[in-house]
Amino acid sequence: MELSDASDIQNLAAHRDAASTTESILHPYPDGYAERRIGDCHAESEAGALAIFAIILNENGPEDGAFVGIIELLIDSGPPSQLAQLSYWIGKPYWNHGYATGAAKAVVKHGFTDLGLERVRSPIF
Asked: What is the pLDDT of residues 66-87, one digit of tens each?
């Protein structure tokens, strides 16, 4: 997730239905919040507490490269950090296309393979 994603985050997260799917989206979504949150996420990632990714379309079509949402692993702070919580949100125009499923499979694999996690959980909101 980069600062260049901020306007897409702002546009998609501002929709009431997207905000209703997670506790991580404020509604109404304040101007400038996406930039601040991206900076916070980078700091948390560098500290090893978070692995966060933009979900981007890669389908060689007219929307190739479009930002559709965010997926993250919030890594347990207790030693050793082998547990994480998976969460995500998808912008409403991209619902029901399997993007969250594909992203979750990739991120969970990354958690087990690259981060050495033993368990990933995802509570229902």
From this structure: 999 999 999 987 766 689 999 9
Structure token pair of residue 58:
């890669």
- Assign domain 3-121 to its CATH superfamily: Gcn5-related N-acetyltransferase (GNAT) (3.40.630.30)
Q: Which residues contact 101 (CB under 8 A, 6 or more apart)?
A: none
In the chain, where are the structural domains located?
A: 3-121
At 125, is the pLDDT very low, low, confident or very high (cuts 50, 70, 90)? low
Of 34, 24, 21, 1, the residue nearest 91 (C-alpha): 21
pLDDT at 75: 94
Write down the pLDDT at residue 61. Answer: 67
Is residue 34 within 8 A of residue 4, CB to CB? The reply is no
- CA dist., res. 80 & res. 117, Å (int): 10
